[in-house]
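Hi all, long-time lurker, first post. I run a small reading group and we've been trying to get comfortable going from sequence to structure in the token notation. Rather than ask abstract questions, I figured I'd post a concrete chain and ask someone more experienced to write out its structure so we can walk through it together at our next meeting. Sequence below, copied exactly:
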Amino acid sequence: MAFVVAHQKVVGMCGISGLIHLDGHPLGDIAQRLNVMSQLIAHRGPNGQGTWIAPDRSGGLAHRRLSILDLSSAGAQPMSGPANHHVVHNGEVYNFIELRQQMSSAWGFRSQTDTEVILAAYDHWGTDCLSRLQGMFAFAVWDEPSRRLFCARDRFGIKPFYYTVVDRIFYFASEAKALLPFLPEIQTDEQAFAEYLTFQYCIGENTLFKGVKELPPGHMLIVENGSISTRRYWDVVYEIDQDHSPAWFMRRMREILEDSVRMHMRSDVPIGAYVSGGVDSSLISILATQHDSSQKVGFHGRFTDYPGYDECKYAYAAAGASETTLHVIDITHNDFQRHIGDVIYHLDFPVCGPGSFPQYMVSALAAQHVRVVLGGQGGDEIFGGYARYLVAYFEQCIRAAIDGTYQNGQFLVTLESIVPNLGVLREYQPLIREFWRDGLFGKMDERYFRLINRATDMNEEIDWNDIDLAPVGEAFRSIFNSTRNVKKQAYFDAMTHFDFKCLLPALLTVEDRMSMAHGLESRVPFLDQSLVEFVASVPPTLKFSGGRLKQMVRDVFEDRIPKDILDRRDKMGFPVPLKEWFGGPLKEMAGDIFLTMRVKHRPHFNADAVLKNFDHAQPFSRKTWGLLSLELWHQTFHDRAAEYRTLLDKEASRMDLGVLQA
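-- Answer (accepted) --
Happy to help. Here is the structure in token form:
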């Protein structure tokens, strides 16, 4: 769908980077350093670029611009204010119009951008401005009078922010690859590697690149007086509201989500939608048509070579409900062979399953038609859409029936309530077998850890003797068992809280990188502060009644979502036919990749076992993807470390960085 709302100017998605010497020393080659970082994220902003360098040359900012409108020089970045503050910003502040009106008497606005609103808000409220910004953002403000760099990332981690310190120089960028030329070596962080093997994503601030950190969602970072400090400015708290009726919750949720969609459609350019055929993306695309029905376009990807991988009929049902023109791309093994290297390059890390590949392909399709696209990311984490929640609930029901206790954190569970929904688990029998392999029941954290642990079927492929998994378990338990966040002992809220804090940022990495690889802005209306805080207060009995996935969404919007989508029991989450491909047309390709793993003697890998076992995985297993993408990641970054290091030795303006993507 394309929707146009006039006279609301937003700069758009971009790439940011910068550096500062912690001791204030001037850097003679600062322009070259900034240019190297800027070039490595040039794909994020194909419509413009700019740099700002401090008068004493001890620091600077760089920006790559993706213009959604406001093409005038007034909207260019880095942007400077009258108080000698300078900003680079990536993302959208959706309430910038309201904030602008609030500050208009104290600030002479020269542009109609949300970026200038950030500058004005910092000038007006200082770091407390973060409590007023609604949207997806990562930005850095250099406060010249205070000699302070103030950086922040949005509450949910929609927009990225990476940083490192080398030789007392602090570097930051939208993507980790922009920091690699400054590292003394490209090495793997052992703790992050252990987390990746366990979850296929990292759950802390460390990344797979040793020395490169990620600013966590909802955090700010300040560089001042030679030191770096970070602190959380927002967190989600699951404190159940017992004072309102189910009807009030239903009515309020509808109001908040519809308002979020309205705010996310602020743009002067056409807006499209990802339409997967699931509840979340279908609902977002349908609600969007309420605000503008003049132009409608959606995008969907499918695999038609093998049965069980095509969800197109549901996508067409959603498109029909909103009278949307649906563009569909047929994705083949040839596409995988041509583009999987591009996917890994743009991701920076082999994160979160093979769904990133079809996301890359659908984003390429969308970018041919629009510059902004809406998606349903976040719905599973805040409303409870994963089948493993149902597996855990099933076990909880059995235990309650045996023990005669049906109450858990004011969440009534009965064995009878789940029986009509067990068909959803048909494709998850291997998961259930693994979950119950070591017995039923036990502590909640132990049970959920078994459900999400991806490492259990890699005993032969990985040498676990040199990998310390104890910190992984400790980090998991500290988040899962947080009584500060989850006030009642509701298993459902504890599960969704962990996924919201850890899995969701990893999925948002995919959302950001795969869209920005094509100069496309991706927006996620489910991840609105008001909505997330509201849903965290809703009793689990409404969100997950009878073990029905996303029951509250279904109840509230049953009049809008097509019945075929509401009733479906086979939502797959964009599976990729890796097993069929690697057992057939891509068998030679996969073998060559894993042979390289053996030749290169990758640490911790038993390449012979990988070669022997890679075609024995279950159809929807992530094991094959995890091993394959790790090897491609090594080839893309570790094996080419020298190429990144030499970038600083060349004139940035003459470098052809495209060779790194080959």
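A couple of things your group might point at:
The chain has 25 helices and 17 strands.
The first helix runs from residue 30 to 40.
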